[in-house]
Amino acid sequence: MTIIAGCDVGSLTSKAVIMQQDKILAVEIIKSKAKPQESANLVLENALTKAGLKLPDVQFIVGTGYGRDHIPFVHKTMSEISCHARGAKWLVPSAKTIIDIGGQDCKVIKLDKTGNVSKFIANDKCASGTGRFLEVMARMMNISIQELGEVSEKSKQPIQFASMCTVWAQADVVKYLNSGFALEDIGAGINMAMANRVSMLVSAIGIETDICMTGGVSKNSGVFVSLERILGHKIKKARKLDPQLAGALGAALIANDQIKGRA
């Protein structure tokens, strides 16, 4: 019985996927701890417990994410681009353009006909267009990130934010809240501003259908719908697995390649 695993340690969440060949045995998502190694140990331990396994049972583990160099138990580390591309392709086999919005960056990846990465672009220098931006805005509104997507669906007149800068946007949220603007209109404006920022990256790299979206922000319906409207294309959803697990899934699939001697 060949068991492999992928571990994705991100800035906001850490994820693990345990597989036996092409079958998923267990997955886990936790909020990241202060130290990447603590996040890695906890998320994999939880996933192993779900699968009824111990660490020595796993033949090969690939690590990815911003904290990949601090994961103590991995056999190999891989870039987020490689892992997210591989995971997204497994989730949406027809995907040619992948939009991944994580806690601290946003990546747009294009795949060639064979499913390999042909081009990519990333925003990792600024919080705008990332999960961190939504987290800060949701905190200002005293709601969760999940609620931020839900409330915006009720909006009749989304607010237009003048700046995507997190600092200025915070000031705008305070101003709108104090002026009595509806929570749903503020939320819709935040999600639209986020979608606009991401659409700039997509336009820069060029759109090729099918498009799929991964990462935690893909579960925000407000951003998802706004991005579809701005791009003028439908975005396919990952239905076989939580899209937030794409990086860990890709890492596990690469681990499987290593075990089989294909990589």
What can you tell me about this protein's structure?
The strands form two sheets. The chain has a five-stranded mixed beta sheet. A five-stranded mixed beta sheet has the order 8-7-6-9-10, sandwiched between helices. It is of the alpha/beta class and 263 residues long. The protein contains eight helices and ten strands. The relative contact order is 0.19. The protein has two domains: 1-92 and 240-263, Nucleotidyltransferase, domain 5 (2-Layer Sandwich); 95-237, Nucleotidyltransferase, domain 5 (2-Layer Sandwich), CATH 3.30.420. The chain has helices at 36-51, 80-91, 131-140, 145-152, 166-178, 183-205, 221-231, 246-260; strands spanning 3-9, 13-20, 23-31, 60-64, 76-77, 97-101, 106-111, 117-123, 211-214, 235-236.
What's a concise summary of this model?
The chain contains eight helices and ten strands.
Question: What descriptors fit this protein?
Answer:
Nucleotidyltransferase, domain 5; alpha/beta; 5-stranded mixed sheet; 263 residues
Order of helices and strands: EEEHEEHEEEHHHHEHEH
Strand content: 15-25%
CATH level 1 name of the largest domain: Alpha Beta
Largest sheet: 5 strands, mixed
Q: Low-confidence spans: pLDDT under 50, at least 5 residues?
A: none
CATH superfamily of the largest domain: ATPase, nucleotide binding domain
Q: State the helical fraction.
A: 40-55%
Q: Which geometry do the CA atoms define?
A: globular
Structural class: alpha/beta
Biggest sheet, spatial arrangement of strands: 3-2-1-4-5
Mean pLDDT over the residues: 92
* Radius of gyration, whole Å: 19 Å
DSSP helical segment count: 8
